[in-house]
Amino acid sequence: MTRLPEPLTLTAPHGEGTVLSYGAHAMSWAPEGHEPVLWVSSRAATETGRAIRGGVPVCFPWFGPGRTGEMTPAHGFARITEWHLDDQGQDDAGNAFASFTLTPQDVSEQLRESFPHEFSATLRMSVGSALRLELSVTNTGEETFEIEEALHTCLSVGDATRVRVRGLDGVPFHDKVTKEQRTQVGDLTVEGETDAVFAHRGEVRVLDPDLGRTLVVSKEGSDSTVVWNPWKDKAVGMSDFADDEWQQMLCVEAGNVMGSPVRLAAGESHVLAQVIEVEPLSEDDAALQG
Ligand code: TA6
């Protein structure tokens, strides 16, 4: 294990962020005039070889233990591997961006055995008044393969027990806590350990009465939306969670996981994107939480 690389700072007129080449890991983003939007644990790993708790881990080429339920490391090898910075600058809209690539040659031989395919992955982070993350995967080999992927976005919230996630009403989901198939009714609220994989392609809005803001989370090329909060009991058992931090975070993840893998024939590519913007909380929504 070695110390993490220095973060790359992306500075734009309407926002600023930081990203590591290790895992192509977005670590921070704050739009002009707002508090930081991404949460990172105070006990997050500071050395390579371990996943970083918080920011936006890139889950690839599998999610969690994979569809076999036995894959290691959890969430694949991309987030614990050094990516190559291959471009950075300002785009025509004035956003600051950086782009990283990963190929099998960058992955340790041992980890590569779990996914013996030729691929090229690119993670592009763009910051300004919005945060845009794009994971593009190309099958550069001769054989068709399937992947799972997710942008495991950890949002900073004032109090997870008081936020409401709007946009999932009526959406079916797999409850990873109870192992049940269920359907969401109304806004999602966090009343215990929450670990849900929704069959969902649209936008969600995270209403945060304590920070007085709405985080608008939209996406492209994604059939799964994952919502996760470990709650206090599970967080206490995680060394990279300070005991009370679970209440200041909520993961809302764009992905293609479990029953919605991405299948790529030779030469095919797929892009998964997530965009986060900050809006003020409406008076009606603020009143909801009292
Ligand atoms: O995205 C939710 C989830 O799959 C949960 O099941 C939980 O395991 C979380 O990811 C964190 O995973 P990690 O490997 O980063 O501890």
Automatic annotation (TrEMBL):
**Swiss-Prot/TrEMBL keywords:** Isomerase
Q: Where is the active site?
A: H152, E253
InterPro entries in the cross-refs: Aldose_1/G6P_1-epimerase (IPR008183), G6P_1-epimerase (IPR025532), Gal_mutarotase_sf_dom (IPR011013), GH-type_carb-bd (IPR014718)
- Reactions catalysed: alpha-D-glucose 6-phosphate = beta-D-glucose 6-phosphate
Output one GO MF annotation. carbohydrate binding
User: By its UniProt entry, which SUPFAM superfamilies does this protein fall under?
Assistant: Galactose mutarotase-like
Q: Does the keyword Isomerase apply?
A: yes
CDD domains assigned = D-hex-6-P-epi_like
Which biological processes are named by the entry's GO terms?
carbohydrate metabolic process
- Report which superkingdom the organism of origin falls in: Bacteria
Q: EC number(s) on record?
A: 5.1.3.15
Supply the Pfam families for this chain: Aldose_epim
The UniProt family comment states:
Belongs to the glucose-6-phosphate 1-epimerase family.
The protein's name in its UniProt record: Putative glucose-6-phosphate 1-epimerase
Taxonomic classification = Bacteria, Bacillati, Actinomycetota, Actinomycetes, Micrococcales
Gene name as annotated: yeaD
